[in-house]
Amino acid sequence: MLFMNENKSLKLKIILVTVSCLAAVSFPLGFYAGSHTEAAQIKIFSNLINTTSEDSQTDFNLFWDAWKLLRENYLRSDQVSDQKMVYGAIRGLAEGMGDKYTTYFDPEEAKQFSETINGEFGGIGAELESQNGYVIVVAPLKGTPAEAVGMKAKDVIVKIDGKDVTGENLNDVVKNIRGEAGSKVKITVLREGVGSLDFNITRAIIKVPAIKYETKGNIGYIKIASFTPKTSEEFAKAISDLFGNKKVSGLVIDLRNNPGGYLDTAVKLAGWFLPKNSLVVSERYSSGNSIELRSDGMGVLKNVPTVVLVNNGSASASEILAGALHDINGTKLIGEKTFGKGTVQELKELSDGSMLKITIANWVTPGGVIIDKEGIKPDVETKNPESKDNKTEPKDLQLEKAVEIVKGMIK
């Protein structure tokens, strides 16, 4: 859940709300190992923290007073390295910006973040979520080790390699499940009506498809789960298959619950639908300057009857694609109001592989709208019913409405 510019190795733009927590758990972010020792890094950090401008009113002695007090008084101070304290301090700097999208990742977290948004990582192949303090299996992915051993939706993960993980946060559980392909992990789950089950799983490289597609009569349905480096290629294949031998005459593009992805990918996909050099999105900075990002495709689908499905899980890159098609082509949006994630983040890599994600700009639709915290309202509002028993899958009324509207557009 993200906007990334694929052409930059050390400075990457992202727009992301969340990323699916897949225990399937790389794109070339350009991470590199630091050559400094831990002591040298602490010294550098010390020098930086003590560097102030002449007109600064900030007393950095407070920082070192706090450092000393923690070192001398914390119960388990001997178990905490200076490096870990430095990471905590940097994390605090990011949190001090008061912006939930400006964050710090230590080297391990940065690696996990990179793997997740790339859609390819080592693990077991199960999508997980947190519910009431427990980590629940949403679904095992098809053809993965999790599916092969019999893991099922709604299994509650309680132990990993014998360690109790009840009450732990989702990221920590995912971190423990992920690992090198070929390595083994033992996962204990609780299953309703069955009780405790142990699964001994050999991890594998899991490739999560960004695109799923099928036909609904003469309508092509394309679900875009995220904007990864492979989405453009997968989208092109979907279009080729769907329009081969004139199988379909219209399209439904499903962006529901898509948290975002690479900036370049979203712009490339817009190029399938918009005239060449159409404005896709503008980035507006605090200085007042703006950068325009324009389509570079042939617009081969611009005259194909198309609607876009959105909901409150459609965010960032999804909102930009939906907004561009709506503002430029008049493409109808079906479903519910989008999330409202209207800021751009940039990844800044540090020398030891850790990373800062910093909010640098607002993004603006071609119609001049800043949707941050507001979202985009659909042209046709349709809500899906909730499952009454949490077992039966309810009808997808939004998709049914989208197909109906596209059929009505076909001449």
TL;DR?
Strand 20 (343-349) and strand 21 form a beta hairpin.
Can you characterise this structure?
The chain is of the alpha+beta class and 411 residues long. Among the domains are: 88 residues, PDZ domain (Pdz3 Domain); 177 residues, Alpha-Beta Complex (2-enoyl-CoA Hydratase, Chain A, domain 1), CATH 3.90.226.10. The chain is built from ten helices and 22 strands. Strands 1, 3, 15, 16, 17, 20 and 21 form a seven-stranded antiparallel sheet that branches. Strands 2, 5, 6, 7, 8, 9 and 10 form a seven-stranded antiparallel sheet that branches. The chain has a six-stranded mixed sheet with strand order 12-13-14-18-19-22, sandwiched between helices. Helix 9 links the parallel strand 18 and strand 19. The two termini are 37 Å apart.
List the helices and strands and how they pair.
Elements: E1 11-16, E2 21-22, H1 38-49, H2 61-73, H3 82-95, E3 103-105, H4 107-118, E4 120-123, E5 126-131, E6 134-140, H5 145-149, E7 156-160, E8 163-164, H6 170-177, E9 184-191, E10 195-202, E11 204-207, E12 211-216, E13 219-224, H7 231-243, E14 250-254, E15 260-262, H8 263-273, E16 279-285, E17 290-294, E18 306-310, H9 317-329, E19 332-335, E20 343-349, E21 355-364, E22 380-381, H10 397-409
Parallel strand pairs: 13-14, 14-18, 18-19, 19-22
Antiparallel strand pairs: 1-15, 1-20, 2-5, 3-21, 4-11, 5-6, 6-7, 7-8, 7-9, 9-10, 12-13, 16-17, 16-21, 20-21
